[in-house]
Automatic annotation (TrEMBL):
It comes from Oncorhynchus kisutch (Coho salmon). It catalyses: N-acetyl-alpha-D-glucosamine 1-phosphate = N-acetyl-D-glucosamine 6-phosphate. SUPFAM superfamilies: Phosphoglucomutase, C-terminal domain, Phosphoglucomutase, first 3 domains. This is Phosphoacetylglucosamine mutase. Catalyzes the conversion of GlcNAc-6-P into GlcNAc-1-P during the synthesis of uridine diphosphate/UDP-GlcNAc, a sugar nucleotide critical to multiple glycosylation pathways including protein N- and O-glycosylation. The active site is at 54 (phosphoserine intermediate). Mg(2+) binds at residues 54, 249, 251, 253. The lineage of its organism: Eukaryota, Metazoa, Chordata, Craniata, Vertebrata.
Length: 489
């Protein structure tokens, strides 16, 4: 075990799989091809392998496994992934046999693996390496695998796009002055899809696409992460006052909205998503008696949590960072809304809205919403259409949406430490359990500020510790984040 711990630090299956410079990933890809094949044999279902590094720079790449229902694989299989990725070549066969034995996998079972990739230049050869891994275990089976998804699994299907478009067309028409939406495609997959959608939705929504991939680099000076971290609009987008704008990330599973006011001040509407579909759903579910909850992470602004609990009066749950954790928690409710402050998220409908219900109108409206939402893991384009639908139905401008509550000023910092794994957390990452004394130090710093909250957690995608602080003023939030960083260091 000690040895395993040691190697796992080299390359661990993190928050969203493996992610690093693309030059270091060939062997990891091959092995994920092997593992996906085993997982498929075990589950007797199709497994997805996604080659992407989301919002990371173009030089990076990554890989994650997508389980049978479109979810992340279980912790045990993440453990196998880490083990396989770090095994020396000569130990590979033994490591594979170990998984086969432990999971009692029948190698005679046919496997089906879907490989998808994003638009990075390295994705072509890296996805081929995944396929090589699949072929190594499954050379006899013809046609069991598919490559060529240029988009995420979700988007690959043309029918899916048509379903989104036709559901959106059911939304009552909005006034002409509210039809324009500026979209930053981050020079990635989202741009391709928006381009396709633009023509189908001309009458209902005037999409203007920027950073469409024709010249700029993926995620460079654009995209959801850039906008959120820099707190400013992406390159190439000229926003007029009050105009709705949004940015997706490199693999189009995150979206953030923003606008500029008449004084030229930039307003980011991060974290508003979870309040947003939510405002819409209770109306639609009137009389349907469904249990609705919103799942957030520790990064959710304190004001949004308060708004949901006190004004919207819904159940709010907090989980660890990472779509897989939120998704899991959301599944416990009839309707589970989950959004991370960074823009990942979706809405899950666990109970069939049509069953045993005579209030047809409400059920029908709900069904329409269901069609507009991609429930697998959430994707930027369907989230964008959902937001557009809700704003239209509620007759809200982006400014009015912004005004539903006021964010507490906050600050996020990254701290580089020798070994980030020494930081252990509990209570959905809101408190630390190690190293000794750190939580006490954070508590005493928080107590010096008003309306303050702060937490630290090791990143699952970068070699850093993340620090979050919020307080009643920006100065106070900045100071607290800085003080906590020093305590971590
Ligand atoms: C990944 C996760 C995202 C999470 C982020 C945290 C997926 C699809 N994406 O991008 O949910 O918010 O990592 O990154 O699971 P961090 O651990 O570096 O803070
Ligand atoms: Zn992403």
């Amino acid at each position: 075990m000690a040895q395993f711990e040691e190697v796992s630090q080299k390359s661990a299956y993190g928050t969203a799989g493996f992610r690093t410079n693309s030059k270091q990933l060939d062997h990891v890809m091959f092995r994920m091809g092997l593992l996906a094949t085993l997982r498929s044999k075990k589950t007797k279902a199709t497994i997805g392998v996604m080659v992407t590094a989301s919002h990371n720079p173009e030089e990076d790449n990554g890989v994650k496994l997508v389980d049978t229902m479109g979810e992340m694989v279980t912790p045990a299989w993440e453990g196998y992934a880490t083990q396989l990725a770090n095994t020396e070549q000569e130990g590979l066969l033994t490591a594979l046999k170990d998984v086969i034995d432990r999971e009692a996998i029948s190698m005679a079972q046919e496997a089906s693996v879907f490989v998808s990739k994003d638009t990075r230049p390295s994705s072509e050869s890296l996805s081929q390496a995944v396929l090589d891994g699949v072929h190594a275990l499954e050379s006899h089976s013809k046609g069991a695998l598919t490559l060529g998804f240029n988009y995420t699994l979700i988007f690959d299907c043309w029918f899916e796009l048509q379903k989104l478009v036709s559901s959106y067309k059911q939304v009552p028409n909005r006034t002409d002055d509210q039809k324009a939406l500026l979209v930053d495609g981050a020079n990635g997959i989202g741009a391709l899809k928006v381009c396709e959608m633009e023509t189908y939705l001309k009458k209902e929504l005037q999409l203007s696409l920027f950073n469409d991939g024709s010249s700029g680099k993926l995620n460079h000076l654009c995209g959801a992460d850039y906008v959120k971290v820099q707190q400013k609009g992406p390159i190439g987008v000229e926003m007029s006052a009050g105009e709705r704008c949004c940015s997706c990330d490199g693999d189009a599973d995150r979206i953030v909205y923003y606008y500029c006011d008449s004084a030229g001040r930039f307003h980011l509407l991060d974290g508003r998503q979870d309040c947003h579909p939510h405002q819409h759903i209770p109306q639609r579910t009137a009389g349907l008696d469904l249990q609705i909850a919103v799942v957030q992470t520790a990064y959710a602004n304190g004001s949004s949590t308060r708004y949901l609990e006190d004004t919207m009066k819904v159940i709010v749950r907090c989980t660890e960072t990472g779509v897989k954790h939120l998704h899991h928690a959301a599944q416990e409710f009839d309707i589970g809304v989950y959004f991370e402050a960074n823009g990942h998220g979706t809405v899950l409908f666990t109970r069939d809205s049509n069953t045993n219900d005579k209030r047809e109108n409400a059920a029908l409206l709900l069904q329409n919403t269901v069609n507009l939402i991609n429930q697998t893991v959430g994707d930027a384009i369907s989230d964008m259409l959902l937001i557009e639908a809700v704003l239209t139905i509620r007759g809200m401008t982006v400014k009015q949406w912004d005004a539903i509550y006021t964010d507490l000023p906050n600050r996020q910092l990254k701290v580089k430490v020798a070994d980030r794994s020494v930081i252990g957390t509990t209570n959905a990452e809101r408190r630390t359990v190690s190293p000794a004394g750190l939580q006490e130090a954070i508590d005493s710093l928080v107590n010096k500020h008003r309306q303050a909250r702060s937490f630290v957690r090791p990143s699952g995608t970068e070699d850093v510790v993340r620090v979050y602080a919020e307080a009643d003023t920006q100065e106070s939030a900045d100071a607290l984040a800085h003080e906590v960083s020093l305590a971590v260091y």
